[in-house]
Write a structure and sequence with these properties.
about 325 residues, about 15% strand, Asp_carbamoyltransf_Asp/Orn-bd, Rossmann fold, 4-stranded parallel beta sheet, amino acid binding, 2 domains, alpha/beta, about 40% helix, 9 strands
Length: about 325
């Protein structure tokens, strides 16, 4: 594996192989000394052109637990704010000897451009590009589902027959896009639920059903309900009347949560808008995997960096 840019490009064997390596990394994190010497001497650059807390810290922790040297780069206060291009930034990192670059960028396709342009020799991990993809988030979501469903017997397994409902701002969600493709690869059945104004126009080619009725989708007792954040910072118009109306029709409120089977997982990639897309009772319940997703993110990102930079697998 040279780069990790999209879940759409992953084969089933590649995806399951990465999740299995993440199981090994999770075992490392249960030890007293949570470190491996695998990437000693390697340099990983976190190249973030957008604000981030969970993803950036997760990648930093993952790289350090593999003994890599980590450089955190923020566009704010850097030469980028003075007009430096992505090409010039990449060539600067090349000159510094970066072995791996974890990039988050507001422009869809920026990680692919960095990986294929020839500007840099480093392995590239897409940490979120515009409204395109966020592959490691989808992988950690799948890892979390697989562990909850299969427990200690998860290794080597996919998500065959698992029914997943993804609810909310599909239009602006790179998390939803990555999950749709990965879940299909792993054998799950996905339904996307959103207001008509928050459904992308290109979903005809997606391996997912589209619904605008959350109650009808929940009545089918899915195995997983994943709520998405309303991304107000990407909205330049009125996509729904108001927050109260949105919560009434598409929020996982106390009433809807109470009707879910006790075995249904409740997921959210974070950060959560409590009271808008998800009620506190759902977010803090034993059915919620929100904290597990954060912890599992480190294991999955350790696995991704290992595959890209250690030469462990072709």
């Amino acid at each position: 594996m040279r780069h990790l840019l999209s879940t759409k490009a992953l084969t089933r064997d590649e995806a399951i192989g990465l999740l299995d390596i993440a199981e090994d990394m999770a075992a490392v994190q249960e030890r007293e000394v949570k470190k491996l010497p695998t990437l000693r001497g390697k340099t990983v650059v976190n190249l973030f052109f957008e604000d981030s807390t969970r993803t950036r810290i997760s990648f930093e922790a993952a790289a350090k637990r593999l003994s890599a040297d980590v450089i955190n780069f923020s566009a704010k206060g850097s030469s980028v704010s003075k007009g430096e291009s992505l090409k010039d930034t990449a060539q600067t990192l090349q000159a510094m000897g970066a072995d791996g670059v974890v990039i988050r960028h507001p422009a869809s396709g920026a990680p692919h451009l960095l990986a294929t342009s020839g500007w840099i020799d480093a392995g590239v991990v897409n940490a979120g590009d515009g409204t395109h993809e966020h592959p490691t988030q989808a992988l950690l979501d799948a890892f979390t589902m697989r562990r909850r469903i299969h427990g200690a017997a998860a290794r080597g397994k996919g998500l065959d027959g698992i029914r997943v409902v993804i609810v909310g701002d599909i239009l602006h969600s790179r998390v939803a896009r990555s999950n749709v493709w990965l879940l299909e690869t792993l054998g799950a059945e996905t339904t996307l639920v959103a207001p008509p104004t928050l459904v992308p126009v290109d979903t005809a080619g997606w391996p997912a059903q589209i619904s605008h009725d959350l109650d009808a989708s929940l009545a089918e007792h899915p195995d997983v309900v994943m709520m998405l954040r309303i991304q107000a910072e990407r909205m330049h118009g009125a996509f729904f009347p108001d927050s109260r109306e949105y919560s009434r029709l598409w929020g996982l409120d106390d009433g809807r949560f109470a009707q879910l089977p006790a075995t249904t997982m409740v997921m959210h990639p974070g950060p959560m808008n409590r009271g808008l897309e998800i009620a506190a009772a759902a977010a803090d319940s034993p059915q919620s995997t929100v904290r597990e997703q954060v912890a599992n993110g480190v294991s999955v990102r350790m696995a991704a960096l290992y595959l890209l930079l250690s030469g462990g697998l072709d």
